[in-house]
Each structure stands twice: as C-alpha cells, then as structure tokens.
Input
Amino acid sequence: MSTTPGTTSQARFDDPGVKSGAPLAAVIGLLGAVGVAASPVVGVGSGRGVDTTGALASAALFAAVCTIIVPLVAVLTSGRRPALAGGLLAGIGAVSLGAAILDVQLFVDAIDANRLDLFRPISAGSIDAGPGAYLALAGHCLLVLSGVLGLVAVHRESERDGYGSARAAEFDGRSVGGRIGAWPTALLILAAVVFVLSLFGPSFSSQDPIFLVKPLVDSVSATAVGTGLVGVAVLVAVAAALTSISLPVGCGA
Output
C-alpha cells in the first residue's frame, strides 16, 4: 500500500475483497441470518383465542447458531478470501430459497408448519402470522440475495487470479473432487444423499394431538415444496463444490 498522502482510500478500493463485492454480500447475509435468528424473540405466531409460547428453546438456539455462523465466517473472510466467502454464501443462499418457501406456510396455516424453532403453539386454535414471521421470511430472502451476490463475487475472482490454479502443477485445472481423492468425495456425496432421503420421512414423532407430523409426500404444499427445494439445493451445492476447479470456492460451498 502506498504511503503517499491521499492514496490510502484508493488502495482500499483496490482491495480484492472490495472489488469482488464479497464484503457487501457477506454483510447482507449476516443481516438476513440475524433476522431469522431474532424472529422467535419478536413473535412468529399470534393467536385469536389461543395462547402461544415462544419457540422450543433448544431448537431456537440450535437454528440460530446454524443460521448465523456461515455468514459470520463469510464476513470474517470476505476481505482476504473473497472466493471462499462467495462459496459460503452461495451454499447457504441456495438452501435459504427452500427455507423461504417453508416460511410461506406460516402465513397460510401456521399450526401445520411445525416450526418449533420459531414458535410453539399450546392449543389447536387458529394462529395468525406475527411480526416474527415477516422477519423470518425477509431474513431468508436476504440470505438468498447474498447467495446471488456471492456467486457474482466468485465469478469476479475467477477472472482476477487464475481460476483453478494450484500450488502443485499436476492439480492445475482439476476439480475439487479430483484433488481431495475418491474417499472424501464419496463420503460427501453419501452425506448429501442421506440428508435428502431423511427429508422424505417425518421430522419427529409426536404423541401431542396439536402436532400432526406427516411425511413429505403428505405435507401441505408450502412445506412439501420448500423441503424439496432444500434437498435439491443441498445436492446442487455439493455437486458444484466437488466439480469446482477452485479449492476455496469448493470448500466454502
């Protein structure tokens, strides 16, 4: 960086992370994640003649950590490793598209959503979507936007620094799957397939008459479509990661 007066600002704008747009994408993703995590506190459900408690504490905490940690890492790495941050955001952005469709069920018939990470009804009475439902939907939409911007950052980085270059010449231009070897690749594919298959069964069993848990094929439309999109997104993200010729992008995704 030049020490000449008046050039520091220009040097900052010439930073690879700034040029790629990764920091902006990461901040948008983090704002979306905070919105999703805060939605149970704001109040997702409001009932007419029905009392609703907050989300199941353990589910809400686990969901909040899983949602926030990815864009937070992207924020921390976006300046020096924009390609890694872009891969991270592209992955969570793809999954968030399905999650946004799942949020739609909160506005159609919230009690059938079975979103114990967001709210927990204690009666079978009708439940209206509260401010937290709008916050969760907006948060997931911001995560989708950050994923799109993350892909833009990846594309800009690919043009900047020799996309696919490797320290060892024999790995130059090879996919991530080819670099990490057959067993790790097979393990990643197996994990993705097992996760997708798990989506077809009921997510939990319930003896409580308030919670009617159905398998995917018998679920209401928003839940079925949203869950299906989450599964497709996971498969696409894993496939894209393994076929990418950029190791940081593949690791991020």
